[in-house]
Design a protein that fits this description.
Number of strands: 25
Oligomer: single chain
Strand content: 15-25%
Shape: globular
Largest sheet: 5 strands, antiparallel
CATH architecture of the largest domain: Orthogonal Bundle
Number of domains: 2
CATH class of the largest domain: Mainly Alpha
Radius of gyration: 23 Å
Number of helices: 13
Structural class: alpha+beta
CATH topology of the largest domain: Transferase(Phosphotransferase), domain 1
Distance between the termini: 10 Å
């Protein structure tokens, strides 16, 4: 198997040295709502400090919802929870400090080491069920349980990243985004129906299947097709080990009333020798967790801030080198998970209305419901220009060597059949705008011309993509939009000098680097630069060539040809090479 995630990225000159009373030591990640940093409590306990973007911080409604969500999340406590320890809701830039859990995410562990042993899966499922029970007892629903939100620590699993994503919903309007990850959403969540704790039970069943088999229960591909299968079809569970297959089938029942409660799940999974503790993880994953404990401890023992460049004015801290391999995984993309308050009454739960799904989601899910009602008929979906294209029946990811990509077809090609062309209306963006055309920018045409690559290295895919803060992922045969919380290249919403834009990666093993050679790079040129200089973020102008290393060690080169700062979208041309990095 390939090596594990380094975990830490050095602080950039634009990063703050402190947030509130917390000194920052390294970057841990970023996402649509903000960035995550490594810090410590005054007594030395490591924390993941999550800082929201300036744009959200300036919105009064976001601040109000942020405070409410944080207050609710502070009620949750349990052995399998990454507890919320401190909040700065009233600070100039709001932040959260959660317990820092050294260990790989379930997503990373399975991708790098393969499916987990059945005994580990049983312990994992029982631990997550106990975490969900603690969340539900506080009157909350996680609503975004997925492999990226579960950390595999040496002493047991931890559920992370439930808290404030719903606060953003009140400020973004018709975003076209959704709360929840498609492959782990329950049918009632897709239909925007009433929510109960059974919603999390469905996600737990899908997560257990992934841990045991290494693949999603309802398959992969275009998002609308996955949602359709969840609502309409039964999953093929034949690859799931028999000892947990019945449990998974029960959790994935379409009717929430037919799903088992958490107590029954815990009883089913816990038996002799199924308690979490030392030795519960297979050796490869245990080594990943142990390395992260050691490296995070070594980094924090050094105390001074780690930086990519010299200290800023007024900062007397010496510059340290990159801490190297073995870092820890934290919340994947800040704000990617969420909680839901529900009214309670004596004796149990009452039915509560989900309020976190915005109107843009209703449009998408309505297409699924229409398709279900029509027993598989495709449903029209408006594009940016108002024209309708077919939805469910056309999976993404089958276009190669053209000017389009999975989910972003700009014109019919000889590969298209039946006139069904995936619309770029599926391209996510912060503002909710969905466009198949290049975003507007004042770049000169000469800056975007020229070859992307030199040499004769085999190419798996080449084409043009529009992406934003959600980003894109490098696959073996194409480039797609992420569905699991990680991305290999994304545009940030940070303010940069005119004509400059910040891009970063948030994959478990990825890296990016701007190519400065006089000619277009060959594959080996990008590999060499990524191995020696790859970083988590870069600030570049239009026309820049960027080398990209994916979470599955695929390698590509991209030329930024347009950026629309209003929509937070970038347009880039890509060449994805066939041979992955070693």
């Amino acid at each position: 198997m390939t090596g594990s995630f380094d975990g830490f990225s050095v602080l950039e000159p634009a990063d703050p040295a402190e947030i509130g009373r917390y000194r920052l030591y390294a970057r841990l990640g970023a996402g649509g709502m903000g960035r995550v940093y490594l810090s410590t409590l005054p007594g030395g306990r490591p924390v993941a400090l999550k800082v929201v973007h300036d744009g959200l911080a300036a919105d009064p409604e976001f601040r109000r919802r942020f405070a409410l969500e944080a207050r609710a999340a502070q009620q949750v406590n349990g052995i399998h929870i990454a507890q919320l320890l401190d909040v700065g809701a009233d600070d100039p830039i709001p932040w959260l400090a959660t317990a820092y859990i050294p260990g790989p995410s379930l997503l990373e562990a399975v991708r790098l080491q393969g499916p987990l042993p059945v005994q580990t899966v049983r312990i994992l499922t029982a631990g997550i069920a106990r975490a969900l029970d603690a969340i539900h007892q506080a009157g909350l629903i996680h609503r975004d349980l997925k492999p990226a939100n579960v950390i595999l620590a040496e002493d047991g699993p931890r559920v992370i990243d439930f808290g404030v994503a719903r606060a953003a919903d009140s400020t973004t309007g018709l975003t076209g985004g959704r709360v929840g990850s498609p492959q782990y959403m329950a049918p009632e969540q897709i239909r925007n129906q009433s929510a109960t704790p059974a919603l999390d039970v469905f996600a737990l069943g899908a997560l257990t299947f992934f841990a045991a088999t290494g693949r999603p229960a309802f398959g992969e591909g275009e998002e609308l097709a996955v949602l359709f299968r969840i609502v309409q079809e039964e999953p093929d569970l034949s690859a799931c080990p028999q000892v947990v297959r019945d449990l998974v089938a029960a959790c994935l029942a379409k009717d929430p009333e037919q799903r088992p409660d958490l107590a029954a799940i815990i009883r089913y999974c816990e038996g002799e020798n199924t308690a979490a503790g030392a030795g519960w993880l297979p050796s490869g994953v245990a080594e990943m967790a142990r390395a992260r404990v050691e490296s995070s401890g070594a980094l924090l023992a050094q105390a001074p801030t780690v930086r990519n460049a010299g200290p800023r004015q007024g900062d007397q801290t010496p510059v340290l080198a990159n801490p190297g391999a073995g870092g820890s995984t934290v919340a994947p993309a800040f704000g990617s998970a969420t909680t839901e308050n529900l009214p309670t009454k004596a004796g149990g739960w009452t039915t509560g209305k989900v309020v976190g799904l915005v109107a843009g989601v209703a449009v998408l899910t309505a297409a699924v419901v229409i398709g279900v009602t029509a027993m598989g008929g495709s449903s029209g979906k408006p594009t940016a220009s108002g024209t309708a294209t077919t939805g469910v029946s056309t999976p993404a990811g089958n276009v190669a060597n053209s000017s389009s990509s999975a989910g972003v077809n700009t014109a019919p090609t000889s590969q298209d059949t039946g006139g069904q062309i995936p619309s770029s209306a599926g391209v996510p963006s912060d503002s909710g705008s969905q466009s198949s055309s290049s975003a507007a920018t004042p770049a000169a045409p000469a800056n975007t011309a020229g070859p992307l690559t030199s040499g004769n290295d085999p190419v798996a895919w080449q084409g043009q993509m529009v992406f934003g803060t959600v980003g894109i992922d490098l696959g073996k045969t194409n480039i797609t939009y992420p569905t699991d919380g990680f991305s290999d290249l994304e545009l940030t919403t940070n303010q940069e000098p005119p004509g400059q834009y910040e891009f970063m990666h948030f994959s478990t093993t990825g890296g990016i680097y701007s190519w400065n050679g006089s000619n277009a790079p060959a594959r080996q040129d990008c590999v060499d630069d990524l191995n020696s200089n790859g970083t988590s973020s870069i600030t570049v102008g239009i026309g820049t060539l960027i080398c990209v290393k994916g979470q599955n060690y695929q390698v590509a080169v991209a030329r930024i040809i347009a950026v629309d700062t209003n929509k937070h979208q970038a347009t880039a041309k890509f060449v994805l090479w066939s041979q992955p990095m070693q």
